Amino acid sequence: MDQYTPPFEITNKMLSLVSSISEKIGNIDYQNNLQSKPHLRRNNKIRSIHSSLRIEANSLSLNQVRDVIDGHLVLGEQKEIQEVKNAYEAYERISTIDPYSMKDLNALHAVMTKYLVTESGVFRSGEEGVFNGDTCIFMAPPARLVPELMAQLFDWMNRAKDDLHPLILSAVFHYEFVFIHPYSDGNGRMARLWHTALLAKWKPVFEFIPIESQIEKFQNGYYDAIAQCHKHGNSNVFIEFMLEQIDNVLEQLLIQIKASGEMLSPYVTRMLDLMEYNIPYSANQIMEKLHLKSKETFRKHYMNPALEMGLVKMTIPDKPSSKNQRYIKQ
């Protein structure tokens, strides 16, 4: 088998982002590495699963995903419910697999697609393309080439892992995997899961960092970066995009850790429990959920403390009293 090296160049922007991410990871490690915060770890894992499935058009809400994982009855399409169960089982295995093993990749694909597809845990036999909605970004390589291409990719990873920073290696793998599109279904879910697995091998805390949620927020940018890489013939744009998203999600996680280390009032806790991530709410919508009538009580005891702690952000921060103002849980 010929040795293959994916085309990319390490840029100053990449090095700057790697430095920033490493510093933030150091701060998270210093703050007890999330080990003392099981509730935060679990919530972040559920957010990862919800966002990764949502990118693939799963319509279940975050609360419904949580209910499925907790074993509660959820009214929804059986396929979507099974996707949640499979994804949760796959993410639970991150710490037990070897992300540099193609055998483990196929084994986890079998978990991720259990009861959903015929070709589960094996490479595709048909032709596939990469789509953003109904738009085809590019057609993947022919199915007959997939086994050799995947073997070359894993061979490169095992040769490069001692010299190339895991933050860059994992991003290169993510793009190359999406380009090869080795499975008949579940490629996006597996690419994001394996990216996390590679990072968790470097720093175990990444198992509880919801990178998928950040990708969902910038889904068009995600697919645009993939399309640009395909056009340019290297993965530079995608590497920089992913490093930026990881840096941003770590910034948010540091805010979460700081907030969880402080005593949240029961008012703020109750409000946050009623809000889903990444959904903009008006003040009236939140007050209705809380069964509140006094705007003064809402501002003083609920919203203002949450804003000050960075747990909620305004969609129009320069016009706090705008009638179009919305609030998003961080």
UniProtKB/TrEMBL annotation:
One of its GO terms (molecular function) is ATP binding. ATP binds at residues 185-192, 222-223. It comes from Catenibacillus scindens. The keyword Nucleotide-binding applies. This is Fic family protein. It comes from the Bacteria. The active site is at residue 181. The record marks 56 as: Important for autoinhibition of adenylyltransferase activity. Keywords: ATP-binding, Nucleotide-binding.
